Amino acid sequence: MAAESIYILPYVLARVFRPTFLDVFDLTNLELGTLFSTYGTVAFLSYIFGGVLADKFSPRKLLSFSLIFTSFGGMVMMTYPSYTILQFLYAFWGFTTVFLFWAPMIKATKIIGGEEKQGKTFSFLDAGRGLVASSIGIIGVIIFSLVVVNDISSASLSDKKEAFKYVIGVSSAIVFVIGIIVFYNLKIDSSEDQEIGNFDEMKTLIKSKSLIFIGLIILCAYMGYKITDIYSLYASEVMMFDEIQSAKIGAYQQYLRPIVCIIIAFFTDKTGNINNIINGFLIMLIGSILFASGFITFSLNSLFIFSLIIVATGTYAVRGLYFSILKDARVPILLSGTAIGIVSIIGYTPDIFATPLYGYLLDTYPGIKGHQYVYLILSVFSILGIYVSLKFKKLINSW
What we know:
Largest sheet: none
Mean pLDDT: 85
Distance between the termini: 37 Å
CATH topology: Growth Hormone, Chain: A
Shape: globular
CATH superfamily: MFS general substrate transporter like domains
CATH class: Mainly Alpha
Structural class: mainly alpha
Radius of gyration: 20 Å
Oligomer: single chain
Order of helices and strands: HHHHHHHHHHHHHHHHHHHH
Number of helices: 20
CATH architecture: Up-down Bundle
């Protein structure tokens, strides 16, 4: 619940309601991408220092405080502020959702999984995240469709703003309540705040080749995850769905995440987490080539859904497993927060450049052409992901 609700306000709403989000905030795809880039820049600096923080303080405290602080940003968002204020808001969220949250969340999961069930635990984590994201998305779609009294195609901008304000308000309340639940119910600490982890140990970990490989694997997989931001836009611009239908596509595809991750959870620790990551990149490559080909156009709804499922399946398979291979990097549990910060600062750099790049291509080449270029980029990163994963596998087999 915590791991996905923290991203409802900065990410999930824009992903599920992409066409509406652009409309009510009067943004281009590039401008929205720049907001995500602002978030990513702050997050980039937060990953490494947040990693050290996670080795010093209780995950229970860090996770709950970050959720509560993040929810406060929703009140600002409900006012439909200027683009400048939105930049500051996304910078604020880059701090609250990463510096205080990310490494403690991954470390908590790693502790729960122990030495033998890392693949299963991280897969169930991402399954739960997908279930929360899709459920919140569906709740948002229901609220939006109920408040918009008229047909969505004839609804005015003020009608859409009024309806979307309710979506933001309910989402903010959910994030706040989950923060309170985490504070009183997350009981995984062997002890409270611990004075462990420092920057000297960080220097040692940075020299680890295995951590660099994990960071690159995450980077390639995250390029695929950023594509999920534009599924609803593809449905709107290319498949000619209306805004509510497009939002449903954005929400429903999230249900693939728990399905894929739960299936993987039951066999991955036995078949090898890195082997399943390689398979995930292969599936992602097949789906991205289908979209990049330009074959998926208006009236080919079945092919659109089929190709979306392929890309999403590969993406969620890799995403559910990439932190599980930290076990193979032989990182001590007491330094896992710092290690998470190191691989995250490499792996999540697409937060800085991917969304502005995708936004530029979508604005410069309207319609299917821009989407083709986006999926062509994903094809390249899928191939790179396969290559780096094979290098990592060779490295750990040599130990």
